[in-house]
Write a structure and sequence with these properties.
Elements lengths: L2 E3 L5 H13 L3 E2 L6 H6 E2 L1 E2 L5 H15 L2 H7 L1 E4 L3 E6 L3 E5 L4 E3 L6 E3 L2 E6 L7 E2 L2 E5 L2 E5 L6 E5 L4 E3 L2 E3 L1 E11 L4 H19 L4 H16 L3
Antiparallel strand pairs: 1-14, 2-4, 3-7, 4-6, 5-17, 6-17, 7-15, 8-9, 10-14, 10-17, 11-16, 12-13, 12-15
Helix pairs in contact: 5-6
The protein binds nickel (II) ion (NI).
The site of nickel (II) ion has 3 residues, from loops.
């Protein structure tokens, strides 16, 4: 499932993020790449331990925890502390798959990357190129979203970021270990959840029955 979640960050939060990121010292993005993806990766990144990354990452995690659409779609178990990257001057990230397991720097914590997330931090009109291209069963999807919007896609997908030929593309990226690791099962639960929400809006008594089905499926499939 590839899903866009609008307005993760408010206008004020976006302006805080831009203010901090404009002043930050960026380093070569190969620092967090695996062996294979390092060859494809050409961008700049904030070091994981950078105070700006910590501060903005905390802000993003707070916004995610308060976003019902994100919770329903991702069923998050653990979220990797958000990272930040910047592409300009023709930089790109060629086709790759994200590492399956990521260690949180400076901790023993490991996260299985079930879902990849990209949160766009600048407006699409501020740069040319820079589309996130994700290959799924229905072909290639091109994603370029307004600032503050986020896309979730299965971390199993081949994906790339097209060259940025004007301006700079600044974004946050991170991974989610879901309580339900299988994308197809997670998608079914999400569809069922949306249906239940509609039944609830209509005060339909079937909502209770389907909520029972939802939780009983979650009980079968979730790892916590
Ligand atoms: Ni990637």
């Amino acid at each position: 499932m590839l899903l866009t979640i609008p307005d993760i960050l408010s206008v004020e939060q976006l302006s805080t993020a831009r203010h901090i990121l404009d002043k930050a010292e960026w380093v070569d993005g190969k620092v967090t790449a695996g062996f294979q993806s390092a060859r494809a990766k050409d961008n700049m990144q904030l070091p994981e331990s950078h105070p700006a990354a910590r501060e903005l990452g905390g802000m993003i995690l707070g916004a995610l925890a308060a976003n019902p659409l994100f919770i329903a779609a991702a069923l998050p178990q653990r979220i990797f502390p958000p990272l930040f990257n910047r592409y300009s001057g023709g930089q790109s990230f060629g086709t790759h798959v994200d590492n399956a397991i990521r260690q949180v720097a400076g901790t023993p914590q490991r996260i299985r990357t079930d879902i990849s997330a990209t949160l766009f931090l600048v407006e699409p009109g501020e740069y040319d190129g820079g589309e996130l291209c994700v290959e799924d069963t229905y072909g290639m999807k091109k994603v370029k979203l307004p600032a503050g919007h986020m896309v979730l896609y299965p971390a199993t997908s081949l994906h790339q970021v097209r060259p940025v030929t004007r301006g700079a593309r600044v974004g946050s990226f991170f991974w989610i270990q879901s309580m339900v690791r299988d994308d197809a099962k997670r998608s079914l639960l999400f569809d069922l959840d949306l249906g239940i929400q509609q039944l609830n809006r209509e005060n339909n008594p079937l909502a209770v029955q389907f909520t029972g089905v939802y939780h009983n499926l979650l009980r079968q499939w979730a790892e916590v």
